[in-house]
Amino acid sequence: MMYLDVRTKEEYDEGHIAGAMHFDVNDISLGKIPACDKNEEIITYCVSGARAGVAEEALRAHGFINV
Predict the structure, then answer these.
(1) How far is residue 46's CA from residue 32's CA, in Å, rounded to a whole number?
(2) What is the structure's pLDDT at 29?
(3) Which of 7, 17, 53, 61 has its CA 20 to 30 A from that of 32?
(4) Which long-range contacts (CB under 8 A, 24 or more apart) does 45-52 make?
(5) What are phi and psi of 5, to 5 degrees?
(6) What are 7-64's pLDDT values in tens digits?
(7) Residue 64 to residues 14, 16, 45, Cα–Cα distance (Å)
(8) Quick check: pTM over 0.85?
(9) Which of helix, strand or coil describes residue 43?
(10) Mind giving me the DSSP string for 7-38?
(11) Are 7 and 43 in contact (CB under 8 A)?
(12) What pLDDT does residue 3 have?
């Protein structure tokens, strides 16, 4: 399982889940996708859940199945 922090770099640097990978939701929205197994379980998170939801939809559209 991978935690994917989709907040800004500044927010990530202020604190994040130990071991979480940072990948800004804006990059995901632009079609930049993290280099990881599309079958791996991915948990996206942000502050309120809104950006995490956007990231989830974008990742699913790119073939990720366990988001």
Answers:
(1) 18
(2) 85
(3) 17
(4) 45/3, 45/4, 45/5, 45/6, 45/17, 45/20, 46/5, 46/6, 46/7, 46/11, 47/7, 47/11, 51/6, 51/7, 51/25, 52/6, 52/25
(5) -85, 115
(6) 999 999 999 999 999 999 999 989 899 988 999 999 999 999 999 999 999 999 999 9
(7) 28, 23, 16
(8) yes
(9) strand
(10) S-HHHHHH---TTPEE--HHHHHTT---SS-T
(11) no
(12) 97
- What pLDDT shows up at residue 1? 94
Q: How many residues are recorded in the chain?
A: 67
Q: Can you tell me the distance from the alpha carbon of 49 to that of 32, in angstroms, rounded to the nearest whole number?
A: 20
Which residue type does 32 have?
Answer: K
The single residue listed with the structure tokens 């502050």 is 47
pLDDT at 41: 97
Return the residue matching tokens 């199945």.
65
